[in-house]
């Protein structure tokens, strides 16, 4: 009976230690690509960020105001050198206030956002959440 209790305690300890190791191995990073603000009709780019330690992500866009009849196109771009960027994923065109999510994966070493505001302006913020 005593051996059985010791074996159960040993198994429980192994399970606890392995679950702690797995949790600490999981990394998450939140990147603010575009701070909340009014963006007028133009094509522009966020700063590029090194996301090579991560293998999946989400781009979260929160639109809080729209002036006139406007459109917002966001494209995730990727690069291996943080200099030359290539289009990776196009988010669905936005035309209204709301919160939107676009999942991305296989994005390479650096990521930035290209955004095109058509019409007058949008007030919005774009954040990336990356994890391995």
Give an account of the 3D structure:
With 132 residues, the protein is of the alpha+beta class. It has a single domain, classed as Jelly Rolls, CATH 2.60.120. It contains 1 helix and 7 strands. It has one helix spanning 2-25; strands at residues 28-45, 49-50, 56-67, 71-79, 86-90, 98-105, 110-131. Strands 1, 2, 3, 4, 5, 6 and 7 form a 7-stranded antiparallel β-sheet that branches. A hairpin with a 6-residue loop joins strand 4 and strand 5. The longest helix has 24 residues, at 2-25.
What is the highest CATH level, the class? Answer: Mainly Beta
Q: What integer value in Å does the Rg equal?
A: 21 Å
What profile does the largest beta sheet have?
7 strands, antiparallel
Q: What is the chain-wise order of helices and strands?
A: HEEEEEEE
Strand content: over 45%
Please state the second-level CATH architecture.
Answer: Sandwich
**Percent helix among the residues?**
10-25%
Principal-axis shape equals elongated
Low-confidence stretches: none
CATH superfamily: icosahedral virus
SSE class: alpha+beta
Number of domains: 1
Round the mean pLDDT to the nearest integer and report it: 87
Determine the CATH topology: Jelly Rolls
> How many strand segments?
7
For the termini, the CA-CA separation is 43 Å
Q: Helical segment tally?
A: 1
């Amino acid at each position: 009976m005593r051996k059985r209790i010791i074996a159960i305690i040993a198994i429980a300890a192994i399970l606890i230690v392995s679950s702690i190791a797995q949790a600490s191995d999981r990394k998450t990073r939140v990147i603010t690509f575009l701070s909340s603000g009014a963006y007028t009709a133009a094509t522009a780019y966020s700063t590029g960020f090194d996301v090579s330690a991560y293998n999946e992500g989400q781009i979260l866009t929160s639109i809080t105001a729209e002036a006139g009849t406007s459109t917002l196109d966001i494209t995730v771009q990727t690069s291996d050198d943080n200099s030359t960027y290539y289009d990776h994923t196009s988010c669905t065109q936005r035309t209204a206030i709301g919160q939107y999510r676009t999942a991305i994966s296989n994005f390479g070493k650096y990521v930035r956002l290209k955004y095109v505001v058509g019409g007058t302006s949008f007030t919005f913020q774009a954040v990336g959440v990356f994890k391995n």
